[in-house]
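Write out the 3D structure for:
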Amino acid sequence: MQISITIEGQEGLTWPLWKRFVTEIENLGYAGLFRSDHFPVDKAALELVVSLAYLALLPLADAEANRLLASVPEERRRKCW
């Protein structure tokens, strides 16, 4: 059985908390990390796409994930910028 974690970004998620969650979830070996796309205006929250873009900048620790990414031809990889 694999277990993933969902973070509700509209519940006061800040950059320090997001970075800590990402690190801890990776270190604890969870299968995945999901984010909700709700964005309130009355309390702290991180916009979904920006928080996921942060993940894209991190090095992949999982050898399987590295292998899967390496198997995608360069011309098929999505360019972020």
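Helices lie at 15-27, 48-57, 63-70.
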